[in-house]
Amino acid sequence: MGDSGGARDGRTRKAARLIDVARLADVSRATAARALGGYGVVTQETREKVAEAAKALDYRVNDLARSMRSGKTLTIGVVVADISNSFTLNSIRGIIDASGSAGYQSLVLNTDGDVRREREAVRVLREKRVDGLLIVPASRLDVGHLAGGRGHGAPVVLFDRFIDDLPLDSVVTADFEASRAAVNLFVEHGHRRIGLLLGTAAHHGHQDSEPHDTVSAVRERARGALAGFADAGLAVNPSWVRYAGSVAPTALAAARHLLSQSPRPTAILAGNEEMLLGALAAAEEIGLAIGRDLSLIGFDDAPWLAVFRPPLSVIQRPTYELGRRAVSLLLSKVGGNRRSESIVLPATLINRASVASISDH
Amino acid sequence: MGDSGGARDGRTRKAARLIDVARLADVSRATAARALGGYGVVTQETREKVAEAAKALDYRVNDLARSMRSGKTLTIGVVVADISNSFTLNSIRGIIDASGSAGYQSLVLNTDGDVRREREAVRVLREKRVDGLLIVPASRLDVGHLAGGRGHGAPVVLFDRFIDDLPLDSVVTADFEASRAAVNLFVEHGHRRIGLLLGTAAHHGHQDSEPHDTVSAVRERARGALAGFADAGLAVNPSWVRYAGSVAPTALAAARHLLSQSPRPTAILAGNEEMLLGALAAAEEIGLAIGRDLSLIGFDDAPWLAVFRPPLSVIQRPTYELGRRAVSLLLSKVGGNRRSESIVLPATLINRASVASISDH
DNA sequence: TTGGCAAAAGAGATCGATCTCATTGGGTGT
DNA sequence: ACACCCAATGAGATCGATCTCTTTTGCCAA
């Protein structure tokens, strides 16, 4: 009320600082900090006095100042190539939950698979002095920004994808084995013309050969499928293999291309959700019934698969758990653990009803 | 190499600070700052000398210190109730793009519709001194944390939901009108038994009356539907109205409940993606064909709808644009604009093939 | 009464970048 | 030759919380 116009009248002027609380409680900053921070020795009476003042001024610590002093931000940066697919989304849930219960905030940035944005994101996060970085790298080759420069010690853990020549810790799925198992399943059902629809960075078009810069997850899936072909003594037919940017129109175009071959594949392994959607759309266009005229296996389970008919067979990855493991590994490194580690979790092939048996071969 | 063990040998010890750059370039901190920051007056020669030193030491500014000094973090906080649905996801895209091109980072936190987590998220973001907050509030009643306390001036813009008694700016969809239009469409096709499946906070069960704490978006949709009933002179049948927590099992249970009424509704308006999935699953269980035995309209378009058969009619909200507008409004307030504003964007009813005509009534 | 000692509280430095306000220097005009 | 001015740079303060290192206070025993 009768505040005589000091700099901070506690009304709406400025946020209260520790020193304002100290003044109101008539103690020093050090004492106020002790009382609020619950360390050192403070009288019960003083503690209450300070608490009261803090409440009266609606005091909130300035985390910037605190981080500055402590050198820790209790924040990890998460850089993902694509937030919108089910895999990433669930993983992020795991990441947020795990980091949250360890007292860390997560700063999630999306790059849409663009290395430039990724570089920028990493720079910003390092400038914000995050304590650690979890990265789904967009590129296999352009990786200079991943390993922190001199002294930029914030540890890095790669998520879902590893980089061959970079000794960075990673948490990934056993994509090779999953892909191979899918092909094996097709083969067991009599398929010998098996198509591969592999999703790459969104800005790519579609083509039959592996793009120069393909991330490990996609490579592993391609290699796994090839291993599956080899298991069955099948030769690879390049016109049944398609790499496509992970965006609806491109996926559709690539799927159309696959299905317009003659002979056309009788089965398709779709490398991600977009590819699966593209394959479904293209199949429908030319009147192929899934699970009868065309067999299909996709990567990653999604909510809508529960209502899609026929029920689609998919490779289910332990998304949430991957996220948790990645955080746990990252935080152990934040804590000083120097041991390098690469975690690989297995995927599960869930065969529902989109793989048909072929009698004649 | 022959570094004589100073505190910072530039190898892997500590991140270089401005003062390290200044020392190496043999200038003062002030000059180094000027050279790097591109302000004030500096000789071309000095500028290069400093740039060289910065590069040699791999210098990165410490954003904490900078923000501390400037009082700005160039960061906005985004608190959403549920990242995983298509609506939020697309909106976040719009938010990130818009804020990014205005030079702001976005800090996205997810609350899963839990007010406690929301309060915590807002507290953390305020402590991190974000310049503004974009919030999808989880509750209509527990809102004390939304209006920043005294002096915590970071402006707040509500997203997708408004709070009746709180004079906060908001950016929302015309849910009332959209919902009414959907009901009108049902009515035009001869439907007189119209079910409502409204999604609420994830932790709720399902019930026929409006939960005490229902966010504006859901309320508006309910009211809009009721208005649609009134337009047609239809009475409300409470057993055709179901409020359900937005999580798969609950949505399914609620949908089952709706469809087990007798007489059962011939049309259902599903309040969000989960409700739509629940309705589809429940309809399939009892062998109702969508677009023939049961008509259906959902809220929000999603990628999988492109391949679902029959094509489902949905209310499409301008998700991306909503995000952009919200950021633009928020940043104008960050910039000092005091004018209060509420933006309402219209939704579009896309009628595909899930609304059947009923001949007899 | 006074020494001694522990409990409680205060003073001041620190984190790193930025910015205001000097200060230095070289040059020019008369 | 001297004053003056401007370009270029440096010194030091500032942002706010924390923490170490004093300093003060209070209490008890001798």
UniProtKB/TrEMBL annotation, chains A, B:
Superkingdom of the organism of origin: Bacteria
InterPro entries: HTH_LacI (IPR000843), LacI/GalR-like_sensor (IPR046335), Lambda_DNA-bd_dom_sf (IPR010982), Peripla_BP_I (IPR028082)
Keyword Transcription regulation: yes
HTH lacI-type domain boundaries: 16-70
UniProtKB keywords: DNA-binding, Repressor, Transcription, Transcription regulation
MF terms (GO), sorted A to Z: DNA-binding transcription factor activity; transcription cis-regulatory region binding
Stored PANTHER family: HTH-TYPE TRANSCRIPTIONAL REPRESSOR PURR-RELATED, LACI-RELATED TRANSCRIPTIONAL REPRESSOR
Name of the protein in question: LacI family transcriptional regulator
Organism in which the protein naturally occurs: Pleomorphomonas diazotrophica
